[in-house]
Amino acid sequence: MRNLRLVNACTSASLDCVAHCIAVNNLQREIYVLASSKIMILNQDHNNVINCIDIDPIEDPNRLPINAEFLIESESVCIAMQDGDVLLYHCNSQQVECVGTVESGIKCMAWSPDQELVLLATAESTIVIMTKDFDVITEISTQTEDFGENKPINVGWGKKETQFHGSAGKPKMGDNVEKPTAPAAEWDNGLPLLSWRGDGQYFACNIINQVTGARQLKFWSREGILQSTSERTDGLEGPLSWRPSGNLIATTQRKPQCYDVLFFERNGLRRSEFTLPFNDDGVRIIELMWNLDSKLLALRLQSVNDDNQLEESSMRSCVQLWFCNNSHWYCKQELSFTNSERIACMQWDTEAPYRLHIATVGGKYLQYNWCWDVDYSRGHTADNLSSVAVIDGDRLLVTPFSAMVVPPPMSAYYIKMKTSINQVCFGPSEIYNDIVIVQADMSIAIYTYRDDVDTFLNDESVKLTGAGGAGFRTSLKPPKCRGIYKLFNQDGTPIINLYQLQHFLWISPNEFLAVMWDDHSVRNYLLYLYLTEDKQQCITVRDMLELPNTVLSLCINHDTHSVIIQYIDGSVWQFNNDNGMNLTPWLLSNGIALQLPQPCPYITTAVMKDSEVIVANNERFRLYLNDKEIANNCTSFCVHDSFLIFSTHSHTCRFVNLSSDWETIKTYSINEAAPFDENLRRVERGSKIVIAVSGSTKLILQMPRGNLEAIHPRALLLHSVRRLLDKLKFGEAFLLMRKHRINSNLLYDHNPKAFMDNIHIFVKQIDDVNHLNLFLSDLREEDVTATMYTAEKSNSSLSGPSTGSKIDKICDAVRESLMSINCDKYVLSIITSYVKKTKAELEKALQLIKSLADKSSVSNGNVNYQESLKYLLVLVDVNELYNVALGTYDFDIVLMVAERSQKDPKEYLPFLNSLQKMEANYSKYSIDKYLKKYDKAIVHLSRCGDEYFDELLALIEKQNLYRQALLLYPVDSVEFKSICKNYGLYLKNIDNHLEAGLMFAKGNEYELARLSFMKCHNWQQAFCMAAKLQFNRKETMDMANKIAGELCEIRNYLGAATVLVEYTNDIKEAIIALIGGCQWNEALRLMHRHDRTDMIESHLLTALVDSYQAQSAYLKNNIDQFRRYNDRLVKVRVEKQQKMQEIADGGDDGDLYSETTSITGRSTKSSVYSRTTGRTSKSRRKVERKKYSLREGSPYEDIALMEVLSQMIKTLSVTKDDIRSLMETLIIFNHDSEATKLQNTLNEYINLVKASLKTIWPPGGVYQHQFGPDYNTRDIADATLQKNNQALAPTSDADLDYPTQPDVAKVFLYDTKWKLELCK
């Protein structure tokens, strides 16, 4: 789908000689044009003659150069002369040297591609193979009857004479006689032609067989061994060229009614051919030549007279460039020359694949440069048909991709012109689809779709093919010819040489721009052309502007009307015609003129975030936005309505949103991982973009072979859906999503508030019941704009924080809207809304179906209750629905469902009959019990009377429904007390003694309550229950002594002392309990309150000194232990980080992989699950304790150390209060020095913990993420997604339970109120 665009065509001044061959020197940028007696040297950049070297002082008609080759290694030009001399022109010394002579003369010379060997075809029908130093290797004869080494072996299989034909099919006498090959034409010059394969391993020679007189091809190896001979072919001619890629050898064949270009394989078999689109009577192919990348085949043609001799007086000379794609050969360009300037020789460039050098007999040198480009209609409106035009000789193949996709070489229609087509472009704004065609005869044809302009009435140039040409209904309105116009200069003279015009551009309905090379001034000019609508039918040059440099590309943006010109140095200029033609530099936002880093033949503009930017792509696959490179592997690009789309060498298409700021767009690397990225689409290998259809989601790609593929990328689809939703076009959006399998939750999640506010519009636009059912069935709680389609920000935040279930909210809103419009029409959708809710409301759905059954008739087009029930049974399991029907206690509904289920009537009818015979509440109870709805069952059973209370109590006890049962009876009822007692016994059995005591108390079971309160050490309530039981003093004291002992066991010394004082009046034992619990202040209070100060000396002081010594030793031991654990933790982490880095750097991982878990403390989730499967909770706790071991070198030693340090910090927060109380008491009894030492030791401990917090819990996390062999796919994907969202920071590993910093540490470590001023 690509055409050759002429980048530039330039000529030199007259050479004053007739050229015979051309050699190209790309090292020194020189061109050598060889005449009969001299070498003209031209500069490639300026195309001017810089030197002239004489070969012979006197011209000799028998001493002409026949071939020339520039030799890179020796920097010389090898020239083969017709008389047999081989000359070397040394470029540096500018000397000509004769290095050898072939006495019989040289007919052809060919150097191998590596320039290690040279072939000389002599007049004696031999080929001399020589080295690059001109040492003869061998000499071989071309006139041999041997086929070659690769002669095929015929074993007779499939021969005609071995097959059965019957009597009628027997071969006649003479049928098997082989017909002789026709000899070469009389005008054939008989010269041999040589051609090498691209890799230099084989060469071919086109010769005349002296026995048969016919031409044939022979193939030799590099060593001069004959490989094969071509099959006999009548009409074979002399031109020969071996394709550099090596698969085809091109030559020509003249037939009675046509002229063919043939392709042979190396084994001599004929592979394929194509027929030239003209009669062979007046044209002869002089030369065939493949370009450097094997894509273009250049044919040099020349006219002949009636005797098939070259015409001298009115000779037509031209070059045609042919290109093959999808097994079809296209003529992409035709260069025509007059008699005085007919072609003398031509040569493809040896570095630039699309540069052609031509020398004419008039002494002029010409250079042409092409590039591939797609010619398509540009415009971002719905009227643009997105047409693509393909040049094929005198036919223009056009396909409007907005209407159809027609694979090449076919097309929707084609335009047949009288002469070959060289350029094509589409119309400007409002006439995007109009076409202008630049022909080879200097005429310009315009085709239009408009009806408001005059067109040719009997125009038959447009032929429908794929759009209705085979007799089918026409699905396309073809264009009509508006006119065919001639080109005229400002002075009224016609423009003679059309190929001086390049970059033809249509800028307004009657205005054009083009670039012209002027031979006289040797300059490029920008021409402003105007179409004159009169009888003359002409396009004239209104104005012209001299250009300082060669133009590389010229483009226009029809939306902004910007015309951009790029020179070959990469500078970008903008064309203005307000006050005469002028060019101004393209300025960036900072005011600096844009200079592209490299010249880019493919350039356009795009509007990105209200600023117009240059989008450029060069031949080295660099893609630029202004001067910023965003990709280094771009193979093609196009600008869509809202996206810049480009394909890459990694076989992907990337979509860049035009709403982005071009300066903030990142550079897309080749191997960038992009999971969950809807702006990236994988495509077939080698695909290139043809066009992105305007106003559509269709993207057309062309494969390397030539076939087309139309895709709908997610980026374009979702962007289109979002725009439709913004316009409240829910119907169109739903159909688009349904067609391309986009999750329909996006209808709501894109903008929840707009969806809920316009729910009636949504229902009316969708309308179809099946579509509504599909939407409701696909609902899910997740927000797809945050999980699936995240490229563009949604408007979910506009609706505020989400409350309640999304599914329930939508189902209720849709159902309400449907019922307000037409309940009967949308009954199936209403049923779906009931079923889809998070807690399906099947009862309401069944009630709705029953209401339909109660109706006497149903209007046309609406469903009846049978169809509704059948639909519901599709959504819900029949057994579940049967149970729901039973739960309605409506036997009509139950029978309606049961009749349409697979249940046996013998099973459900007796059951239903027995239920109907029961009392109403007991029937409901039986149904609830059958359905295992026990909470409802006890309600109905409680209403059946006292005789069923025992059954109720048994059900409550079996199903543990005590809490629900307490709500069924008054508090003062016997039933309530009985339920409370049973509930208390249940709680007692499960060791919940506190709540058991409460239930016993509610049920007036005070003794049971007292025992339960004592079990849970709630001594206050236990004494309350004893009071209600009216205990005497002895019973009370015994109970108090028992409770006090139990409280001391659980270290509740204050509670024990209170019980002893208040209920036994044993002051001594109370004080002893307080001293044992270090409750110094309370113990002193009781001593003074009850006059027992004697216990200070006997009990308190001794215990005080012992407590001081124990606390001091405890703190010192903890300080040493904390410091040791902290230092070990730092060392363990350093070792782990080093090992993790070694894995990430890709070192010797053999030993490291086996210790993956020990290095990082990670394991895949699947392996974790497999190890824990089947373990009891006790065994799992045991495994966890063993897993986090403090043993040095254990896999999780760091976690165990963190856990120990965390526990020590928590314990310190409690110890601090005890030590403060001890210090106060020490000071009271004049132990000030001991109190000071204790405070200093505790302060040292606290400061150590404060200094170690950042070491134990680093602010950035414990370990950074390292993607090694221990990470599974999900880990890497999650981390990559976070990275794409710029939220990935070094964090601790979430798969392991790393202890967190205790919350109390943030408070008590920085609280200094515990310190005593007296101890500072």
Write the layout of secondary structure elements.
Elements: E1 3-11, E2 21-25, E3 30-34, E4 38-43, E5 49-54, E6 65-71, E7 76-81, E8 85-90, E9 95-101, E10 106-111, E11 117-122, E12 126-131, E13 136-141, E14 193-196, E15 202-208, E16 215-221, E17 226-229, E18 236-242, E19 249-254, E20 259-264, E21 270-275, E22 283-290, E23 296-303, E24 317-325, E25 328-337, E26 343-348, E27 355-360, E28 365-373, E29 375-376, E30 387-392, E31 395-400, E32 413-416, E33 421-426, E34 435-439, E35 443-448, E36 462-464, E37 480-488, E38 501-508, E39 511-518, E40 523-532, E41 538-547, E42 551-557, E43 562-567, E44 572-576, E45 582-585, E46 602-608, E47 611-617, E48 623-625, E49 628-631, E50 634-639, E51 643-648, E52 652-657, E53 680-682, E54 688-692, E55 699-702, E56 708-711, H1 714-726, H2 730-739, H3 746-749, H4 752-757, H5 759-766, H6 769-777, H7 784-787, H8 806-822, H9 827-836, H10 842-854, H11 865-875, H12 878-887, H13 891-898, H14 905-917, H15 920-930, H16 934-942, H17 949-959, H18 962-966, H19 974-989, H20 993-1002, H21 1006-1015, H22 1019-1028, H23 1033-1049, H24 1053-1064, ...
Parallel strand pairs: 37-41
Antiparallel strand pairs: 1-28, 2-3, 3-4, 4-5, 6-7, 7-8, 8-9, 10-11, 11-12, 12-13, 14-15, 15-16, 16-17, 18-19, 19-20, 20-21, 22-23, 23-24, 24-25, 26-27, 27-28, 29-30, 30-31, 31-32, 32-36, 33-34, 34-35, 35-37, 38-39, 39-40, 40-41, 42-43, 43-44, 44-45, 46-47, 47-48, 48-49, 50-51, 51-52, 52-53, ...
Q: Can you walk me through this structure?
A:
The structure is a single chain. The protein is α+β, with helices and mostly antiparallel strands and 1320 residues long. Helices cover 32% and strands 26% of the residues. The chain is built from 35 helices and 56 strands. Strand 42 and strand 43 form a beta hairpin. Helix 16 runs antiparallel to helix 17. The longest helix is centred in the C-terminal third of the chain and has 51 residues. The two termini are 92 Å apart. About 3% of the residues have low confidence.
